[in-house]
Design a protein that fits this description.
62% helix, Arc Repressor Mutant, subunit A, Rna Polymerase Sigma Factor, Chain: A, mainly alpha, 2 domains
């Protein structure tokens, strides 16, 4: 098995910097905390590079380290909205609609409303939306980053989108003919 060395790590990890920083900023809501999270993510990843398995998804591995670093930080879960377990598992299924956060962002005149709505989401929903819709990860990659089954990813995305629609008061009757 070929081990990833520091030079290979640099070549694979540095192009992810902006994506990791953006997600860290969404998680923390603060530039300094986001910078600290990304710096700590890179330090942890480099230290643990021997645990990276060649042939697996390096990008997902880095995002998982970022997420875990955030969740264990002082600004992580303790400072975020809480979602009760019974709200997460076993509740009625929400169907995904054709209205996505990107479409909402394009249609709204005030993009700050979208930013505020995403920021107000409980962290488990916010991270799913950001990884899917901002970082364009597949459900499989998101499941790997979040360490949950794909079905849970789909459920969280559906719930997040419904919460966003409620927060932004999206009226299905206001959709354009192109969305139908």
């Amino acid at each position: 098995m070929i081990k990833m060395d520091a030079e290979l790590f640099e070549g694979a990890a540095l192009p992810l910097f902006d994506q990791l920083y953006n997600l860290a900023y969404w998680f923390s809501g603060n530039r300094a905390d986001a910078e600290d999270l990304v710096q700590e993510t890179y330090a942890k990843a480099l230290k643990a590079i021997d645990s990276f398995q060649e042939g697996t998804n390096f990008r997902a591995w880095m995002f998982q380290i970022l997420r875990n670093t955030f969740l264990t930080s002082r600004s992580g879960l303790k400072a975020q909205n809480t979602v009760f377990l019974e709200d997460e598992e076993g509740a009625e299924a929400f169907l995904a609609h054709s209205v996505t956060p990107e479409l909402v962002a394009l249609q709204l005149e005030n993009s700050q409303a979208v930013i505020d709505a995403i920021s107000a989401l409980p962290i488990i929903y916010r991270e799913a939306v950001l990884l899917c819709d901002m970082e364009e990860m597949t459900y499989k990659e998101i499941a790997q980053v979040l360490a949950v089954p794909i079905g849970t990813v789909m459920s969280r995305l559906s719930r997040a989108r419904n919460l966003l629609k409620q927060a932004l008061a999206i009226d299905p009757a206001r959709r354009s003919p192109h969305e139908v």
